[in-house]
Amino acid sequence: MNTIHFVMMGKGGVGKSLIAVTLAQYLAKLERPLNCVDLDPTSPTFKQFGALNVEHISIVDNEANIDPTRFDVLMENILKSDTDWVIDTGAPTFLPLVNYLAANEVFSFLVESGRRVVIHSPLVGGVAMHETVSGLKALLQMSDCPIVVWENEFFGPVALNGKRFLQTTGYEQFKSRVLGVVLLEKKDHKTAEADLRSMHARRLTWNEADEDDGFMTMQRNRLKIMRRDIDGQLDKIDL
Q1: Backbone phi, then psi, for 74, in 5-degree steps?
Q2: DSSP secondary structure letter of residue 124
Q3: Please, which residues have CB within 8 angstroms of residue 149's CB and are 6 or more apart in sequence?
Q4: Residue 202 vs residues 12, 196, 206: alpha-carbon distances, Å
Q5: Were both Cys, which of 51, 86, 180, 187 would link to 237 (CB 3.0–4.6 Å)?
Q6: Distance (Å, rounded) from C-alpha 219 to C-alpha 213?
Q7: Per-residue pLDDT tens for 196-237?
Q8: pTM score, whole prediction
């Protein structure tokens, strides 16, 4: 059964495209046939990673409403394929897309058509935490699809009142739907974090960075350690 991975969050700049890029590379490493799509109408970061062959599709009209015809084309392509998909949905279209998906029962239709749907959503620390928590709640309430929560510590500890997501009542309410939690651990901003930011600023994949002379040996080693850690966490999740 092929799986459609939707990466979704209404708050921009919280690591959504990082998740899409990381997830796509993980699935590709497993040698699973894969299509990648970037739906962000204004900042298609996922598309800019050339090695991943990401297609950019604008599904909104001039008034930022979901264009049903454009989205229907995407659905046709999904239903005609026998591959996995990673779809980065774009923060600017979060609310209209969530409403459109719910009104048209898109996820239920995909499941009934023999596809598996998995939602991926970031939680961040710092000032944007409450907004990402609200976005996650909206996704959990929108459908019955399983979800992977990515705790992104790059903006600070991902905790409310000292409690991480797995310790909250929100998790207890929806834990049957949570496939797993991936921790994007805060790193030293002068070393590992700087290496990761440089890699993504240059739109390089893990493999490309490992072969790039612009990274010194220890930089490449730190990136390998990060990849090993994240892939190890993904190995424990039924993707």
Answers
A1: -60, -45
A2: E
A3: 121, 122, 123, 136, 165, 178, 180, 181, 182
A4: 19, 10, 12
A5: 180
A6: 11
A7: 999 999 999 999 999 999 999 999 999 999 999 999 999 999
A8: 0.94
